[in-house]
Amino acid sequence: MPKLADDLSMTLNTRLNTLSPSKIRAFDAKASTIPGIIKLTIGEPDLNTPDHVKKAAIADIEANDSHYAPQAGKPELLKAFSNYLKRSINVDYDPESEICVTVGATGALNDVFMAILNPGDKILVPTPVWALYFQLIKLTGAIPVQIDTSKDGFVLTPEHLEEVLNGEGKGAKAIILTDPSNPTGRVYPEETLKGLAKVITKYQLFSISDEIYAELVYDNNVHHSLSEYIPERNILISGLSKAYAMTGWRLGFIAAPSQIMQSIRKINAFLVTSVTDNVQAAAIEALNNGQDDPLKSRKIYEDRLIFMKKGLEDLGFELSTPQGAFYIFAKIPDTFGQDDVAFANELASKAKVGVTPGRYFGKGGEGYVRLSYASSTEDLQEALRRIKKYVDNI
Q1: Are 99 and 120 spatial neighbours (Cβ–Cβ below 8 Å)?
Q2: Where would I find the Aminotransferase class I/classII large domain in this sequence (predicted)?
């Protein structure tokens, strides 16, 4: 086995030394070693990709579509995403110059951060949030400024944003907003987004809206986008992973004004050349002929949310009013203290139920755990029974 030359060992990218592997993934890997455990740790739909979408990919392979696709995406797919945004949030994006197809929403985040952030730039990150944001931002040399939203009901208010912009976040270049939220499941009300848009404009920020869960909103709530109010500033990121149960297909997209999209497309081409042909064919089918697919998924997830919400509240957990995505962010009952890492480890080892410690999602997550209800209904029922037995025996 080759060993790296000693004179090269200290010449690697030193920025990587400031980054840590995903604690969420590490905890999930540890929990996975426990025999018989039910894992509610990862946002992985148990549903299958719709058959007509799979057939479209197979047909594309059989048609020998095996050559380089256009670097920003196939024209048919760019058009399909443009139509999707028009019908869902009533915003017009030019498929020829304002949309880019990416390798998942994670690829989209990399493209955007690399396109707009320079070393030393500040970007505001309301927390708790999907922790990968922090590492991707740091890779560019920029500085993530966490905004703890726990006292605002896990929804950043315009007043809180302005306070941060006159304090720790003074001089920030951008803000990223996840809506619906991972891990809290919160959905931003329209009036709150309008207020945030005014502050973002006043302080001349870029806004980045991660809307990967946009199709999964429950209880008569409605998803709105910053692109409805400040399309000239907003960079919208989304994809098909969650609503279409296509996590493994790795298909995302970005929509933004053409001036910044030129840079985003350049970065995307440098990183991946182009997205896989048959994956794009599947996405075209999903968007053009599968508009009812997310509705079916939404009904399943909403039924699971209602079941889990009642069960956990009956056991003394306080919930952060989940309204979308497929997560519950639950405050640990006072009986167990506020060490969410210790509680999650205990629950895994003694009850054989895996949940994710809240502090892994940034400031404001301490004392909470995240549970994913993207697992099967049968697993959720059994997990709740195990949690009840564990709680009752303390």
Answers
A1: no
A2: 37-387
pLDDT tens figures, 170-200: 999 999 999 999 999 999 999 999 999 999 9
Q: The pTM is what?
A: 0.95
* Tokens 């059989």 found at: 62
Cis-peptide, bond into residue 189, ω within 30° of zero: no
Dihedral over Cα of 136, 168, 192, 374: its sign: positive
Specify the CATH number for the domain of residue 279.
3.40.640.10
Q: CB–CB of 368/223 below 8 Å?
A: no
Contact indicator for 316, 336 with CB cutoff of 8 Å: no
H helix or E strand, kind and range, residue 307? helix 293-314
Domain membership of residue 56 (yes or no) is no
Q: For the segment 40-92, what is each residue's pLDDT rounded down to a tens digit?
A: 998 889 999 999 999 999 999 999 999 999 999 999 999 999 999 999 999 99
75 lies in the same domain as 91 = yes
DSSP 319-385: E----BTTEEEEEPPGGG-S-HHHHHHHIIIII-EE-EEGGGG-TT-TTEEEEE--S-HHHHHHHHH
Residue 164 sits in which domain range?
66-289
